[in-house]
Amino acid sequence: INAEYMGFKDMHGTAILSQERDSISKISSIANQIMGTAATSRERLQHQRSAFGRILETMDTLLNKFPAVNDLINRIHRKKSRDVIVLSAVIAVCLFVIWLYWK
Asked: Whole-model pTM?
């Protein structure tokens, strides 16, 4: 009986080691897939970065060639920032009034 138990123990241990090896192999495969996806994503982001760099260079060139367009864009930015300040002030006043009402 003792010899049978030892044989079963060895077979069971071998099966466990085989399962562990298979698990490690699967995890390694998944890790390789993730690393491949990450590398592909990195390449795509680098490509987008260079494309946006070229677009910005083109925009700068156009803005330097046509100062009226540059002036128009600057006026739009100033108006946007003015609108943001006004909206912030209105929200602050509303919150202050609500705070006074609840106090």
From this structure: 0.48
